[in-house]
């Protein structure tokens, strides 16, 4: 879901940039490269259509940004501190291994040495 919204975000950013550059300005912008805009958008020119398109695309861009922020926030609800393993960070001394004491009534084990005859 997030990858789809991220792709939509990039596409919206590119389309908004193009619509802003196509609008009539003092230096004409990219509108000079698009040919006769009056015949395409009607007698009043592209001003009204492009301003409405820019407003709509801007609104979609903001809504998509809020949706992306919400989804990323839901995926990352736990803090980075919660995922740190504290057992590996705190040095501990190894426990001493003790052997069990011998039974009190057990006979001592005496190694036998074979006699050479």
From TrEMBL:
Organism the protein comes from: Halarcobacter bivalviorum
GO cellular component, one term: plasma membrane
Main location: membrane
Localization, UniProt: Cell membrane
Membrane topology: Multi-pass membrane protein
Name by which UniProt lists this protein: Protein-export membrane protein SecG
Job description of the protein: Involved in protein export. Participates in an early event of protein translocation.
Domain of life assignment: Bacteria
GO molecular function ontology, one term from the record: protein-transporting ATPase activity
Keyword Cell membrane: yes
Annotated segments matching region Disordered: 92-117
UniProt entry keywords in alphabetical sequence: Cell membrane, Membrane, Protein transport, Translocation, Transmembrane, Transmembrane helix, Transport
Family per record: Belongs to the SecG family.
GO BP, sorted A to Z: intracellular protein transmembrane transport; protein secretion; protein transport by the Sec complex
Record field: transmembrane: 55-72
This protein's encoding gene: secG
